[in-house]
Specification:
This protein is mainly β and 336 residues long. The chain contains 2 helices and 25 strands.
Amino acid sequence: MGTWYGLYPPQAIFAKRRFKKILLDPPCFDPGSWCGAGKLWIDADDEEYWLTSRPRMGAEKRGYAVEIYRSRDGENYSLVTWITKEELSEMVRRTVQSIENQQLLRDPLTGKYHLYLSIDVAERNVAGDAGRIFESKWETFLLIADDPTGPWEPWGFALKGSEDYDSGEARDCTIDIIDGRYFCLYKARAGGTNVVHTALAVSSDGKNWTKLGVLTIDGKQQPDYFLLYGSVHAGSTGPVFIGTETLGVVKGAALTKYFVAYVVDYRNLNLERIFLAEWKPGSRYEHPQYPIHTYCNVVYDPLNDRWLIWVEAVDPTCSKEPGLNLEVDRVLLYTT
């Protein structure tokens, strides 16, 4: 195969992936029931794997908690703690209509854990209706703890909808730390529109963020719907994003079958594409046309010298059909 330099090639991670097992099941198997939208964090010092998830049960019981799981082998997880939507509302001092994406990291200066949560703080629950999901108001809230098991203390909003391009949504973050700098690719939607872009923010402490704006793709403007979700790695040519690329919505749900890698040229606010491939389901638990509901992680496992890929997969059997309150989502594990 020759010699590869720099980051292990994303193409090889993708090509050699194999389905391993179901990591998490949804709280029930009724349409609209999901789990996932989380982050896999590996603590190499303590040889522990941490996985977050949000459970959901339909339009009336949207993302109702954040769950934190622990594992010793990266494959078998046990629930260790959770924070309910009601508990989070008290911390935020606003009604939280739903919890979605979560990001769990450890700050290199303080050693404390950061938990970033995408929360809907609209005045009323409107996103249960697929036709009105763009009336929601999503921002990203930060909790801090000495240990992933808690207790978690509120810090405040890390990303608010403060710019025209993210006034409706500033959420669904992909956050990783490269060379001591926090990089955040996030979903940015202008209020009152259905135009979704991927924007970039950076931070030196994970608390105070500088928004750099909406990125271009190989020097060109993003399409009207463009959402990245995955992981950011250190590459020889700069930070490298590896994960999913979502280009549209199916009956209210952001679904995809595309796996991509980009160099994040943050100085020029541009994404340089390395590769794009179609994700072909490797298990019977993935819908043949829309296998992934946006969310995934691609993480190198130093404890076992392998790559771990988890995806929030649309189940083809339990789902009525792909769509916001129609499908059932599991978390599946692939390994390379």
